[in-house]
Design a protein that fits this description.
The complex is a heterodimer. In chain A, 35% of the residues lie in helices and 22% in strands. By secondary structure, chain A is of the alpha/beta class. Chain B is flat and about 50 Å long. In chain B, helix 4 packs across helix 9. Classes of the chains: A alpha/beta, B mainly alpha.
Amino acid sequence: MAEIIAGVGTSHVPAIGAASDNNKQDEAYWKPVFEGFGPARQWMEDKRPDIVILVYNDHASAFSVELINTFVLGAADEYNPADEGYGPRAVPQVIGNADFSSHIAESLIMDEFDIAIANEMDVDHGLSVPLTVMCGKPAQWPCQVIPLCVNVIKYPQPTGNRCFNLGKALRKAVQSYPGNQRVAIFGTGGMSHQLQGERAGLVNPDFDNMFLDKLMTDPVTLSKIGHTEYLREAGSEGIELIMWLIMRGALSDNLREAYRFYHIPVSNTAYGCVIYDELSAA
Amino acid sequence: MAQDDAEHDALQGDLKNANNSGVDSVREKSNPQKDYDDIPGTYVFDGKRCRQGYHMNKFCKTLDSAENRARFKADPAAYLDQFPMTAEQRQAIEQREWLEMLKLGGNIYYTFKLAIVDQLSMQHVGGEMSGMTVDEFRQMMIDGGRRLDGNRSIGGDN
């Protein structure tokens, strides 16, 4: 059966993608950020997951106001980079695994998580930037990627508890797939940031560090944080952190924190990255 | 999209029919003021704003195709004519009033597509929305970002 070997949390700030694409990693602003990616990239090379389930949000690229789905699972064999206004990012095409996705969708729905299924969609920076963070600039991404989109733009977003429980259902789904794939789950977005309004630029390192401290050892407490608390304390876009709870829900409690990195600012955002190894994984 | 309206109407009906013991809880539920409205400088993109800004956001969404960007730049007025926005929304778009767009139901991920056409960064838009120059905004981020203290609540503790 397929096995979950690790979880990764990382912000997916689009400016990281632009900095990488335009080779700015040695500039003073970006140097500490890309140096912070170094150990995460080394970890990725060492671990070599076969499949990454990448939890992210679409930023009005594949989806729009006409139809707002809370959870959408990609079920295609390939996904193209979206045009977000600059032309598509010059990054590799994302290779999926339709058979694996179909199994995950079936398992989730039988488990009463009625997820929407996308057989065709473009993927934006929410998906491609975490791959840049973890893999750098390879000619091809080193793993298959299963996109799992969460609505975090239109209120009400799913609750943290729902996300945490979706992660648990995802774990059952992966572990019942007949194969020997080693699977990592990425929860992306956050950390604290606010793009909009007179409060634009708000970050809250106290909240972020509390979140990073509790995510491995006390995720149940984090799963009870409500919408208004996220919006108020972590900024209107900081509520993206609920997607990290899907990742955490998919892991066991037998974990090791392999890496943690936190840096302010990346563009308008507090950047965070955390990696958890499953200690019982082969 | 009309669910909130339907719910609101149903609650209004409930209010009329409610006996005294149920009035308070029904009134509380139907109160259009949400607890997140107390967060200063923040325009939560809820059902009400989504409906209010629907056509403005749909216009912005079309700008993620190169062909549409070219058509919009070639003749903005004709391009905007395709979208049944209010006069206020159209003016906010034409004048690039980024904060006003949010107040009229715009969502930042949509309105930012217009900023990309103008080759503006998120720092530029963030600065304009909060009354700062782009350099001041960028420096504020380098200095650790906007602090939460003093920015928590309109009516309560900060």
